[in-house]
Structures are given as structure tokens and as C-alpha cells.
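BUG: 3D viewer hangs when loading the predicted structure for this chain

Environment: internal workstation, default settings.
Expected: structure renders.
Actual: progress bar stalls at 90%.

Input used:
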Amino acid sequence: MSSTSEAASRQLKADTVSAFLASLHEASPHTRTAYRAGLTLALEAKLVLDEDFLKAFSAFLAKRKFARATRQLYLAALRRLLQWMDANDALPPGFNRAKAEARLRTALGKARAGYRHRQPDPDLPKIVTFYDAQPLPEPTTPQNKLKRLELLRDRAIMHTLYASAGRVSEVASLTRAQVADGRASEVLIIGKGSKQRLLLLTREAQAAIHAYCAERDDTSSALFISHRRGKGQPLSRMSIWRAVKRAAKALGLSQTTSPHAFRHYRATQLLNEGMPLESVQAYLGHASPETTRTVYAHTRTSVLRDQLNTFGLSPDEALKSKTR
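C-alpha cells produced before the viewer hung:
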């Protein structure tokens, strides 16, 4: 067999990917969609199944200029595929999965040295007040009624993002029953990794949700829905993203502002106000406090400044303390 045909025989096959995706019975629809997208790219790359497989795919994604989080997600999909292939004896003879993982870690060495935290815009709460300040149209015409519903919905979305620091997928999937049309302050959801956790709502968020639900006359069970195209259908994550971006642009906020920025903002805010790291971990739904510490611990500038002012000594005070 020629080297070319041998390499082709060791390439990832579409039927292998299809079988793996069909095995993801317990994964959320969002995870399955993301894995399918990542593995479709892996097939497109026509990579050879050898110890450089993961490393080569990482380089392929980097050339496509995907965001860091997207690259990590697609790599996670490929790593889980290899794990599945290993368990089902579907890897080529001589393939060493541990060595493939080690070569990927070596290639990502500098990138894995630390999490680069993207500082949220300090004026992010203005997005909430931006929608609150807009005058509510009187429902005198069908068009006014439509605009009124959309404004009430967008108000409720922004208050929910701010209050809960929920992931956009978690907020988009909320139902009216879960929030009891605004009466519930604690909402049990299935979050990342198919794990149960609570979203906490403030009184302001509850009031905004109640005002929105009270105006609706549809039978949709989803909390946030479209009132125009696809009327009654759950609002997509992209629609929520657009609503945040629309306000951010009008307010002149950072171009990186997104629904996820609310999550970073609230975590940083709460840590700076003195909330214990373990409490912030529970609030965000992180599986481990190490995740919270890695991402946010260095942002506790207000707490650190207060403690430095309390316990720190000036040069003169430090010298005097030696003579005591």
C-alpha cells in the first residue's frame, strides 16, 4: 500500500462521526449541535489519525481564526470522539491516545498558562436601564401592541441576565412554568453538563418578567418568545445577543459586550463586594471552586485594595514596627 493510500485509510471517517453523535443520548441539544459542527470541521480538515491528530486540528482551527472558546469546544468534541473510539476499539492499530493528548498540551503550552479574562465594560448595567427608560407604547394599535410586547420582553431578558448571571442558553430555554410568570425567585434548571442548578432572580427581574407575561395572550410555554417572524417560538440565543448588542451600540459600550458579559460583570462585582468565592461558585453554577478561582480570583481588586489599606504599612510605619 502506498503512503498516500495508507494515510487516507487512517483519516477520520464520516460514518464514525455519525455513530459517535448518535451515541450522545444524554447530551443536551446544544452540546450535540456544537459537537456536530466541530467534528464536521475535523472531517473537512482530512487529518490523519496519528499522535499529531489533536495538535493538527488545533492548528487548523487557529488558522480559521475561531474564537478561543470555540476552539476549546471543538477540541473537546474531538477528544471525546477519540475516547469513544478507544472504548469501542475503533482507533487505528498503534494509535496512542495519551500521546496525542500530551502533544496537544505541549502545543498549547503558552495558551494554557492562564485564563485571559476579558474585562466587562464598567457601564454594562446601563443596558438594563436603557430598556427600562424607553417609553412603553400604549396598545392602541396592533403595531403598538407588538412594540409594547417586545419592549417588555427585552426588559425582562436584561433583568434576568443581570440578576441570574445565567448563560445565554440557560436564559433562552426558560419556561413560564419555571419562573411562575415572575412569582418565583429561585428557578431550578438543567445547566451546563446536564447538571441541575438554581438561577436566582431579584425582585426587579421578577417584576419585569411578570409585566411581560401579564401582557401576553399566547399559549406558548416558553418564557421569551418571538412576536414577529416565527411568532410564538422560543427566542433564539442569537436574538438575545442582538438585543444586547443593540443597546451596547446605542450606549457606546465596548464592542465585546455580549450576553455572557453580564455573567463576568456580576461575578466580578460580587467578589469585589466581598462575597466568598464558594458562594460565587454556587451562584454561577461552576462545578468546582477552582474554575471560579481561575477565572475570577484576580478581579477582586476592591477587596484587595481595602485589605491592603487596612493591613499594609508605609515605609515609616514598617521601620517603626521593627523597634517595638
